[in-house]
Amino acid sequence: MTTRTPTLFLSHGAPTLPIDPSMPREGFTALAQHLPKPKSILMLSAHWYTQRPAVSTATQPETIHDFYGFPRALYEIQYPAPGAPETAQRAAALLRAQGVEVDEEAHGLDHGAWVPMLLMFPDADVPVAQLSIQPRNDAAYHFAVGRALRELRDEGVMVVGSGQITHNLRQADFSARPEDADPRVAEFTDWFESRLAARDIDALLDYRRQAPHAVLMHPTDEHLLPVFAALGAADDDYTLGVQSLGTFQRALAMTNYVFGSASVQ
């Protein structure tokens, strides 16, 4: 009997996460130690979005430095994980079986993918494929995408959403200390976590109306959409694991979720 892989949502923070000692880098390393090592990863990142779904079939995806104005050392980082074209094509087939048109591209790993992967799997020995998100579509759409991908978990594939549980850069203060966090961040994340714990899918999919300060926390929701794909791919009776790493830059909550049976600290 095989054990299904858990699904994850990662708050990947700023691109500087791997090199900034003030950021909670160790938390991602610790998280990986509590997870089964997957055969491959299917990553849905907030930083690859297309009009309709696309999968990356690259055999050796490039490391994309899709940001500007950061220290030179960040642009020198390479994450040479192999691609997972078979996983990409399997994901595409599952979506097509649901009537969804899917493109195939030789896309690299954007920083929403390689930044957390670098910390969690520093040996770059887990193959990674990416699936794009569609910000013009809502949470329910991305939940349905995840639901279509659920079978991958029986094949050793870990479905990972990478974004940010709160993401309003206009509210961010890059000199702020963790204790300077906007209290509305906690009000939003507490509501979201309580609904996750209750498996209240209807409320979660309607978060923009029901969650406190939802529009303030997510003026646009591309950084939250990956969580709904991870949630859709999870079991109906998932066990919720929460890893809260604090709030940084006043407005960015660094909270990771595991949907499965793995413990997190």
From TrEMBL:
The keyword Magnesium does not apply. InterPro entries: Extradiol_dOase_DODA, Xdiol_dOase_suB. It comes from the Bacteria. Residues 8-259 form the Extradiol ring-cleavage dioxygenase class III enzyme subunit B domain. Gene3D superfamilies: LigB-like. Coiled coil: none annotated. Its EC number is 1.13.11.-. This is 4,5-DOPA dioxygenase extradiol. The lineage of its organism: Bacteria, Pseudomonadati, Pseudomonadota, Betaproteobacteria, Burkholderiales.
